[in-house]
Amino acid sequence: MDKKLVAIQRTTQSKPLSSSSLLYTLISSPLALVSALRRIFYQAYLLHYQKRLDVYQRPEPHAVEQLVESCLPPVPNRSLAESPRGGVGWQKKNSLERWCETRIYGYLQKRCHDTKIAIHFRLTNPAEELISIPEGEHTLSRELTIYYRSPRIFSLLFMMPSSQHSLLLGTQGEKVFSVSSSELFTELFVPPTSTSHPPSWKDRLAKRLRSSDIPHSITIPIPEHHALDSPPTLRSLFVLSTLIFLGVLERNLYLLFHARFVPGDEPWGGWNRITRGPSWDVVGSHRRDNER
Q1: Which residue in 58, 116, 224, 229 has the most C-beta neighbors within 10 A?
Q2: What is the pLDDT of residues 191-228, one digit of tens each?
Q3: Is residue 279 within 8 Å of residue 223, measured between CB atoms?
Q4: Chain-centre distance of CA 211, in angstroms?
């Protein structure tokens, strides 16, 4: 028999619904929320800084459909349930991820006809609409399915210097997406080869920004042009710079406050997880053998 935690709330006092009582409730509710957050932060401070408990990243939810989950890389799961579904809520796309998503979909709308490849995006979040490119019936001879857990896939595809880098980091380091065929995925995001002119200063700057975080141990060639830059614009350079800046800012803020993640679970440690392996198993337990 499964053990369940049940909480029952019984009202012990009530007040008549009047203008004054409603106004009092509206005024006091925000104060109560701030007070609860203050107590939560205080307890988190005690656990992290005094009890020396490290923290995990926010876990990505499991796919509701078992087929989608089976096609995705395993991620830390805080539950030992045999068939977990969902979990914490799905994060909404931020403005930068929406911009990258629009740029990627626009690129694929043109590229699918050149390569004769139809693309299907399968999400773990059942509330979002499934995306197929092109929409409806088509005569394309090949099909590629991209499964993803998080909208970070769009910023990752835009930030990486090539499709091979994004495939390596996204499937092994960050574990946010997988593809049905790595060959078709790489073919879709091949940078333009018909460019006869040398790289412009925008191309060189975009290449430098994208390759700034790639470790020297990763020997994948970095092309002069990027598939999603046709050509790069000031807006695309601004988005790329902002994404990189926010990643650096996040890391420095954690270092400033001496916040500690479980070793190997740092948000900025995707490339390290590829070379060293994760420090957690499938159910999220910290592996001590990585510390030896």
Answers
A1: 229
A2: 866 555 788 899 999 999 999 999 999 999 999 999 99
A3: no
A4: 19
